Amino acid sequence: MPERRRIRVTGTVQGVGFRPFVYRLATDLALAGWVGNDSRGVILEAEGPVEALDRLAARIGAEAPPLARVESVQVEAVVPPTGEGGFTVVDSRAAGSPAVAVPVDVATCDDCLREMADPADRRFGYPFTNCTNCGPRYTIIRSIPYDRASTTMAGFVMCADCRREYEDPGDRRFHAEPTCCPVCGPELSLLRPDGGVLAKAADALDAAVALLVAGRILAVKGLGGYHLACDAADPAAVAELRRRKHRDDKPFALMVPDVDAARALCDLGEEAVAALASPRRPIVLAPRRPDAPVAPGVAPNLPELGLMLAYTPLHVLLMAGTHRALVMTSGNLSDEPIAHDDADALARLGPMVDAILTHDRAIYIRCDDSVVRSGTRGSVSPAGTRVLRTSPAGGGGGSVSPAGTRVLRTTPAGAGGGPSPAGAPEPDHRGTVQMVRRSRGYAPEPIGLPTTARQHVLAVGAELKSTVAVAKGDTVVASHHIGDLEHLAAYRSFLQAVDHLCSLTGVTPAVVAHDLHPEYLSTKFAADLDLPAVGVQHHHAHIASCLVEHGRTEPVLGVAFDGLGLGTDGTAWGGELLVADLGSFRRVGHLRTVSLPGGDRAAREPWRMAVAWLAETLGAEAAERYGRTADDRWAAVLALALRPDALRTSSAGRLFDAVAALLGLRRQITYEAQAAIELESAAAGQPLAGPGGYELDLVDGPDGTLVLDPSPLLATVVAEHRRGAPTPAVAAGFHAGLGRGVAAAAARAAAENGLDTVALSGGVFQNARLTAVVAGELERAGLAVLVHHRLPPNDGGVSVGQAAVAAWRGSLGS
């Protein structure tokens, strides 16, 4: 007897060819019925033999299209069967609250590339070719359900040929909403900086290629915004772009034609290649080759380059025309949000470029390129090199510390803290990648929550590297990278992201989660909402985001190292050991606190932190000696550092700044974390174990917390630098000594609290070398280590952590 069943499929199932996929399955199984989209996903009814219906449900989950992500397949009987014949695809239904996962933007597929390269094809050389398996999605969607009328393609009326493809369930472009061709789709324009038209269509592309080859600078409209482009091998062009963009040192991203071209520039492991060539097409940070043919100004003082492959048809055509690597950096002035609106782009980018290559398909949501990092991870040194030496205060080998406290010092194996055994191999961990910026190609893909949000949660993130997130049921959805909210355009983008994300996901917030810092604009926004608010401590949010990524709810020992975040005691935290689960945390250790002379200025001027640390560890005389060589304002800064009422911080990021300044690498920065990045870069090529003699003291603090005291570490850095030790060796020693000390502290705190897992989060753990040292030591101590891969460890992941904390507390009724 035939049956009729209703099947609901949830997940990322719209805009990925799911309906034609179901149509083909049902037709193949000779089933009758229909399939369509609604606000919750894909819904279908199928009628036929029981065995065929069983096979349909099984194959839906097992054979889904490559861009789909099936979360659930729910089946229920429909009585009685209707006796209808044939299977059809029906129009979308908008009833109900949206719950469908919004599809992400996807790089051009191989089928579309073949069409673009075929002179006999009607889409030959067309820069907006796409199909169900590729093209713009999130950046053009205004609302759900995902239909053409709900996108920025609504104004382009399909020609007869495109309409035929769009309506044929057997065609690759069946209900591919951005479907178009040269007859009916968007068109290129090349504009003068004042907006005057230089060329159209194919002529615009040819003229743009000629300008790039001639060393000119162009603005190029991509998927989620404009890029600024020039020849990456032309020193004059790169230097001029830096001058016009007001970007002194921050590295530029490069676009290359293919993986072979990428290998000519960087050393790439298998997973780095996989990320580079994936449909998501992120920027991949990877170690540069010594002979890489790029201008020195592309990435000053850094051993890495940021590479991406062409991900739109327009980019593919530019690569084919220029036959070279191109700088493809965000279209903005330094630190401003990327331009995505055409009028705004003309106003802001026009003065910076020689021409603008644009088109008439609007970008609805600004979305920067995603960034992942390829580099060393894992073990620090050969097994057996880690020892812990315990001595009483004042005892032999112990550092000076408060009377009666116990000091635990970590050193490499070998007599007197000497070097690790000679000839020991360093492991190669180039394969792994870490998320640095989660945006185009990844956002807004849902992430599973290890708890259930019983009420809708809006989380508004932090101030820097802003993202927002919503939690609903057993998923959390984070927005694209928004930027730093201190810029008005970024704050406006933040407001748009809140409204858009809630609309797309069907979230009506019942609670808002926010950072504890009262001066963050995101916190002020949360306070203005007429909603119950959940304040989440910044570093707890970091650890919670790591727990979410690994599907954990139970307590772990969290190591949260970053720049600054407001602590529960009103001081500036940033080097924390927390016993934390999704709902709560307890501070059990921290980096020794030091004054923060000048407040936020200390983050922009690392020499200030060098003065502060020297004053507190080696004395005012040492601080004065350094200060006189560093800056004319040294005396005022030293006075600030010595004030008993000075603002104090436990920030690990500011410790890195101090060491970078002490080594003469960076006294003032031109972009966030520059000093720390250049300190890590200085150690490139050095053994992870580093030279001997770099140690960190672990001291029992008066409040019962474990204090990580870098005084002996800094003393060694200063002494080695003064005696002329090579800067790379000193930088490596600092990383190794700090990493071993952090691992020892975390292991001790975990043991004292009955924990077997350590989670590493916070922006400092973007440092591959430090992460490798800490993780390797912890793993050899028998502890499980959680690190970030899908979410960034920096503040871009904070909104996810906030959402999870609020969801967990709500599930407990608190």
Secondary structure topology:
Elements: E1 3-12, H1 18-28, E2 32-38, E3 41-48, H2 50-62, E4 69-78, E5 87-89, H3 110-117, H4 160-167, E6 188-191, E7 197-200, H5 201-213, E8 218-221, E9 226-231, H6 235-245, E10 253-256, H7 259-265, H8 270-277, E11 283-287, E12 304-309, H9 313-322, E13 326-330, H10 342-349, E14 355-359, E15 371-374, E16 386-392, E17 406-412, E18 433-437, E19 447-459, E20 469-478, H11 488-505, E21 511-515, H12 521-528, E22 533-536, H13 538-549, E23 556-566, E24 572-580, E25 585-591, E26 594-595, H14 601-604, H15 606-617, H16 620-630, H17 634-642, E27 648-649, H18 652-662, H19 674-682, E28 697-700, E29 706-709, H20 711-722, H21 727-752, E30 757-761, H22 768-780, E31 784-786, H23 798-811
Parallel strand pairs: 2-5, 8-14, 10-12, 11-15, 19-21, 21-22, 23-30, 25-29, 30-31
Antiparallel strand pairs: 1-3, 1-4, 2-3, 6-7, 6-14, 8-9, 9-13, 10-13, 11-12, 15-18, 16-17, 17-28, 19-20, 23-24, 24-25, 26-27, 28-29
Helix pairs in contact: 5-9, 13-23, 15-16, 15-17, 15-18, 16-17, 18-19, 20-21, 21-22
